[in-house]
Design a protein that fits this description.
With 136 residues, the chain is mainly α. The protein contains six helices and no strands.
């Protein structure tokens, strides 16, 4: 049995998500892989006393929004696209309702942001994705 660093695993998943999105237009794969990578990166940030990207954004929003923010509902909705393609709870849950290209892009950008926060090594695919989002 070998030992594998979960951050390295997340890096591979993010790399594959970027390739799926940019090269193959395989948006379900991109969404799933980026979501899995983001979960690992976010957890590692929290383990080390930091905050994941979503929590950071909610903290910033709370500073200028006068009403209470339902953080749990927002985080649940943030994860809904990824979870809707990897779970099927019953017959009524057969179909996923997505804005697929946007949802997969958002999952990649969330994972990419946390990857950057963790100061992971830039790879050719990371550089390609950075260039892609700069031209949007």
């Amino acid at each position: 049995m070998e030992k594998f660093d979960k951050l390295t695993i997340a890096d591979e998943m993010l790399e594959s998500a970027i390739e799926s999105y940019l090269d193959g237009q395989k948006y379900f794969s991109a969404l799933h892989l980026a979501g899995a990578a983001q979960e690992i990166y976010g957890k590692w940030l929290r383990i080390n006393g930091g905050q994941d990207f979503t929590t950071m954004m909610l903290d910033q929003a709370a500073k200028f929004i006068d009403e209470p923010i339902d953080r749990k509902a927002i985080k649940k909705e943030d994860k809904r696209p990824k979870n809707s393609i990897k779970h099927m709870d019953n017959e009524a849950d057969r179909f996923a309702y997505l804005n697929l290209k946007l949802d997969s892009f958002m999952a990649i950008t969330d994972a990419f942001t946390e990857y950057s926060m963790l100061k992971r090594n830039e790879t050719p695919n990371i550089i390609r994705f950075k260039a892609f989002i700069e031209i949007l």
